[in-house]
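lol forgot to send this yesterday, sorry. struct tokens for the thing we talked abt
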């Protein structure tokens, strides 16, 4: 097996190297450039953030040492902590932080909202900068510490000067691991070495916050597309960590003493949605779309994926169960799904046998199974179904067209979906973007603005309920289940931080 996977790169001791297989190859290294989850994972290894979220969902200072806010909430002053250095040896300064935020504002939906609410962002001294708002914004710290992708990663000002539409020319961060192009073999592996100059916070590591103490010499990230090959390599000791254990191998892995599984709950789980196309075809009629609310059986989807109650649950809350914005507004039609109820509802619409085009991604397990189950239930409810099978890249390309598709299954992490301002399913409302099914509900726009400005959690929860009511009233998307895809790792690893975003500080290899 070692011959198949390859030997270690020169100068790296095997005993102190942790080998990992992540969800995909890390192709885009600019942490602002893309919302791809794999780039976010890379970002947390090589770069750092001003604030970070702990396991309880609380935002804590990370690169920031201290901060103050004026009584009216419009002026925020931040001071960076001592000891921060870029991987090229230069000191991290307030100028770098300001430039990084300004670039990130152009790439992130949530960051863009903070940017539009900003009157000025100015450097006061080498370690201090001041954010002055032109209007109330109740989520300043939550935005600076968001886990939503692309994340608010800091980079040297000279790199942050790169337009957001272009990729940065060098990968220089200040995080606990260092990237070197000399250690990167695209299509094969990437080696991230421990940053010996990194000064961690004094607090214990707590999810993305606290002291990022690296206890290994290097992280060897392998590119191995086949899950069974990775599992065999883990059993032989050649791979230490696998981000996504195959669903069909979970029961076998649970019985293997050499392997441990890391399960996830709440914001660390995925939520699946069926995204509908409002631009053309039968689902351009909201009454026909609403039939899906009584048709989708989440239990059937989870069972079809081979997931037990240990790893999954039914959840009708659009902003996921276990989040601060979980609510039941508009969920009544989904509480007792049945083919008969859907068939009766369909008869009350203008549907006249037009084909419903269901896109099925044959190379991703969860979207494939969820879409196949939906196609079957649509037929049984009386729809004419045209099921078109293709790879995921083709699904992504097809959804940018206003015609040629009706619905497909997709899933995303709760850390991105739980907040209305970062929820990708509805985040492109009325913007003309092509990833949300061309929906436009103008009533949502002022609610998004009100949510961002709301000064209290209670007020944001009330507004989230209003948003959810509109989303379900128009059947903009329908959830098909909340679930975890566990990580698998060699049982010899100790102190691995439980996180759906793979984190490799704090872990020890024994």
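and heres what i got for the seq, position by position
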């Amino acid at each position: 097996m070692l011959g198949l996977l390859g030997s270690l790169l020169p100068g790296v001791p095997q005993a102190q190297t942790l080998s990992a297989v992540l969800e995909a190859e890390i192709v885009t290294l600019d942490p602002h450039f893309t919302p791809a989850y794999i780039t976010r994972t890379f970002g947390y290894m090589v770069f750092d953030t001003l604030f970070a979220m702990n396991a309880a969902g609380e935002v804590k200072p990370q690169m920031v040492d201290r901060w103050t806010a004026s009584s009216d909430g419009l002026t925020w002053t931040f001071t960076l902590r001592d000891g921060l250095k870029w991987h090229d040896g230069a000191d991290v300064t307030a100028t770098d932080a300001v430039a990084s935020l300004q670039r990130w504002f152009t790439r992130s939906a949530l960051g863009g909202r903070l940017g539009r609410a900003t009157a000025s962002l100015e450097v006061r001294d080498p370690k201090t900068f001041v954010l002055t708002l032109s209007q109330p914004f109740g989520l300043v710290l939550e935005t600076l510490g968001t886990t939503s992708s692309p994340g608010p990663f800091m980079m040297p000002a000279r790199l942050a000067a790169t337009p957001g539409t272009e990729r940065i020319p060098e990968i220089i961060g200040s995080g606990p691991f260092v990237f070197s192009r000399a250690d990167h073999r695209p299509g094969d592996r990437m080696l991230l070495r421990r940053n010996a100059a990194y000064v961690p916070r004094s607090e214990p590591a707590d999810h993305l916050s606290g002291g990022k103490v690296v206890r290994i010499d290097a992280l060897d990230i392998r590119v191995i597309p086949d899950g069974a090959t990775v599992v065999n390599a883990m059993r032989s000791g050649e791979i230490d960590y696998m981000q996504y254990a195959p669903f069909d191998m979970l029961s076998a892995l649970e019985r293997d003493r050499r392997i441990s599984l890391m399960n996830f709950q709440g914001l660390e789980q995925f939520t699946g949605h069926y995204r509908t196309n409002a631009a053309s075809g039968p689902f351009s009629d909201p009454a026909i779309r609403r039939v899906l609310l009584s048709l989708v059986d989440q239990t059937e989807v989870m069972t079809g994926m081979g997931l037990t109650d240990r790893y999954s649950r039914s959840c009708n809350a659009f902003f996921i169960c276990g989040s601060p914005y979980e609510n039941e507004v508009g969920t009544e039609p989904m509480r007792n799904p049945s083919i008969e109820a859907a068939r009766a509802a369909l008869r009350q619409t203008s549907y006249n046998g037009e084909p419903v085009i269901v896109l099925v991604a044959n190379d991703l397990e969860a979207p494939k199974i969820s879409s196949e189950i939906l196609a079957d239930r649509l037929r049984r409810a009386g729809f004419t179904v045209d099921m078109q099978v293709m790879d995921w890249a083709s699904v992504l390309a097809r959804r940018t067209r206003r015609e040629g598709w009706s619905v497909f299954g997709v899933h995303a992490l709760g850390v991105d979906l739980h907040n209305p301002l970062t929820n990708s399913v509805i985040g492109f409302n009325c913007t003309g973007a092509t990833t949300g099914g061309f929906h436009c509900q103008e009533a949502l726009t002022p609610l998004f603005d009100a949510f961002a400005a709301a000064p209290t959690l209670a007020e944001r929860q009330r507004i989230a309920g209003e948003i959810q009511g509109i989303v379900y009233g128009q059947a903009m998307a329908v959830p098909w289940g909340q679930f975890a895809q566990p990580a698998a790792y060699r049982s010899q690893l100790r102190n691995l931080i439980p996180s759906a975003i793979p984190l490799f500080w704090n872990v020890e290899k024994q």
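The radius of gyration is 23 Å. anyway ping me if u want another try
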